[in-house]
């Protein structure tokens, strides 16, 4: 049966999976959601005997129903290959009382690789399926990791250009260096003098600008997105939670059918939404534990039922979570309205115009699968220190937020069923913060000196992704104000 995708803000706007991937964002700013969440057609025991690629196929065939088996397997096999530094793709390691799902073994050492390695293949396949003649312009805002992962995925992919906007002073030095040294004749990286939310808001506006779309089309271009709002990003993220569960069964850590908890550090909500979809498909999940940093809009939302972005934006040591507008939450909001696009659109308008919205008690009751909490900067540092001291295992700042929140969850609930923590980035992406937590006397080292010091302490080799940028020349040095982003896009595409 073909799965139909529908806009969260307009019941009349529907698309096949491939069309939804191509468009990225629905009209009127809505997001594409599946009409129904399909159930697994393989047992948990069967899934436990499969490698990552096979699990990916079994999950994705249910969600991307207008792709043929040949098309899907081509996309999967092209994505999950030697770009990853381990055959497992996403290893699961037991440390400090939890199972850490290492999602950072790809080309850019962050979890975004898991989806952005496959998105270019899904997108170019979708373009062929729908007879698209225009060149696809990937337009993306990043809080750090998406940018580099998307750039690496789309670099020199025929028929595409990619333009990435990032907050000039809101990413780690390693994250920035990874982006501004990116090769590829079709890649463009632009810093903005604002924060991630400014970049994301401007990108969304460009997607909804009909005049700009007409100008682009006239010049032979059309926009698509690599942000987590694209279902071509979201669907591959479901896979690794299913794979993690399958690995626990395969390793005899749990019985098939036994419930687990999943802990996810998130700002944009996409990564934990994928875990929620996995649960809806049949994965035995007890609690989805949503971990926030000091920009704790999601914690406040789960606590009160009010989403309020009217607060100071805080730059933290976990910059990929420094977000006040969690775009993917809209997909969950749509679901708890009972699939009511008018109600969802009204709430999103309240957020856009007034900076907040409040859900009804009936809607809040549907969030019982979620637990939200947050970590302060000091608690994040303490979590890195504690995991290192007790398990000789080094985690990055984002994973540390999850570890710290998981500790609070156990203290609050006494629930000690097996927990999978999404380990979303290599500690080598955030060397200064990590070294500050576990060592002293390195204040004078630069980021690469810190990487070498971390290698000595951890026994884990400096990843290729870091070594490659040590001496790489800066190829992108453009910086603009947020309001100048549309003009910059037109300049890049040579549209007068």
Concise account of the structure shown:
This protein is 45% helix and 16% strand.
Secondary structure topology:
Blueprint: E1 5-7, E2 10-15, H1 17-23, E3 32-34, H2 44-48, H3 52-63, H4 69-79, E4 92-95, E5 98-102, H5 112-116, H6 119-129, E6 135-141, H7 145-154, E7 160-167, H8 173-180, E8 187-192, H9 196-207, H10 210-218, E9 221-224, H11 231-250, E10 260-265, H12 270-281, E11 285-292, H13 297-304, E12 306-308, H14 329-336, H15 341-354, E13 356-358, H16 361-365, E14 370-374, H17 377-391, H18 397-413, E15 419-423, H19 431-438, H20 447-458, H21 464-467, E16 478-480, H22 485-492
Parallel strand pairs: 5-15, 6-7, 6-9, 7-8, 8-16, 10-11, 10-15, 11-14
Antiparallel strand pairs: 1-2, 1-3, 4-5, 12-13
Helix pairs in contact: 1-6, 3-4, 3-11, 4-6, 11-12, 17-18, 17-19, 19-20
Strands ordered across the widest β-sheet: 4-5-15-10-11-14
Helix content: 40-55%
Number of strands: 16
What is the architecture of the domain at 92-109 and 232-463 at the second tier of CATH? 3-Layer(aba) Sandwich
* Helical stretch tally: 22
N-to-C span? 45 Å
Major sheet summary line: 6 strands, mixed
Unreliable sequence segments: none
Mean pLDDT: 95
CATH class of the domain at 92-109 and 232-463: Alpha Beta
- CATH fold assignment of the domain at 92-109 and 232-463: Rossmann fold
In angstroms, what is the radius of gyration? 21 Å
Shape: globular
Please state roughly what percent of the residues sit in beta strands, choosing from under 5%, 5-15%, 15-25%, 25-35%, 35-45% or over 45%: 15-25%
**Secondary-structure content class:** alpha/beta
